[in-house]
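Worked problem 6 (solution included).
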Amino acid sequence: MRAWAVVAAKQPLQEIELPTPEPTGKQVLLEVTHAGVCHSDIHIWEGEWDLGSRGKMRLSERGVVLPLAMGHEIVGRVVKWGPDAEGQGLAVGQTRIVFPWVGCGTCARCRAEDDNMCVQGKALGVFQNGGYATHVLAPQPRHLVDPGDLDPALAATYACSGITVFSAINKVMPLPADTPIVLVGAGGLGLQAIAVLKAMGHRRIVSVDISAEKLAAAREAGATDTLEATGDDVTKRLVALCGGPVEAIIDLVNGSATARICFDALTKGGRLVQVGLFGGELTVPLPVMAMRALTVQGSYVGSPKELRALVAMAQGGRLPAIPITREPMRNADAALQRLIAGKVTGRIVLTAEAA
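Solution. The predicted structure is:
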């Protein structure tokens, strides 16, 4: 198979040949038709995450081996499967979304379909070759979801940005429809979160970003309020915009600066859900945590159950589409560089030549 792979950290992606995997057991081989370019791919390409005072987490020390075909937002066509997958509804040529956040497959969390919480994560596009390739191997048929009537390019984004925001939103729900929910970041995740909230019937959606262009896209997507997060008084202006301290904030950037703004804006009993992987750390006053009964909670992607629920919600156009820019797979490196430069609204989705 061909892959557009990371061969060295921070170096251009290279088109290389790799052995096409032969499925065994319950594995399913798919021909990739669409692969989203996600912000997390930047960190994988860089080879490290910023953990604040804990220093850098180098992916080579966590089991990531190069060359690696990144890409965890994948749609493909079923090609073949292992003998243990017989009788599970597979047919050659089926179009399927591939759930990428796979684990060991045998622990209690994997058996409960909370694969994303497995401590032995083996995510596609991170620890195994993913969608920046002509083929990808799914561990089991249950990791495949029928996109139904969805545009496959849009459906691909649901495997990461979609279930990531869906899972995070569910951590602050239920809330009255007119209670402000603040979304920090108006990139691909932010626009996806607006779409999900609108589909849920939520009416007060506040989008925060440093880019006027991205805030304009957020308003077009359905944000009721926007705030440009420049200057030293962002928290004060955010609280004023929301009519008082905030009950629910989802930080899709999650860097030191945004986390501080979010924490300081919370009301008594308020909840901050941290999603992004920008880097840094947050120091919190412990007595305030208790006296104001605050919750600061991380949220890591989502589960196969959440992907199926999200796709069901999206059927029939009930979930507004985010902006999608299609690029041929051969342009993977250029697409990644555009994302690094902050020049992407919504999502770039790489497509196979015949897709």
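Discussion: The CA atoms of residues 41 and 338 lie 12 Å apart.
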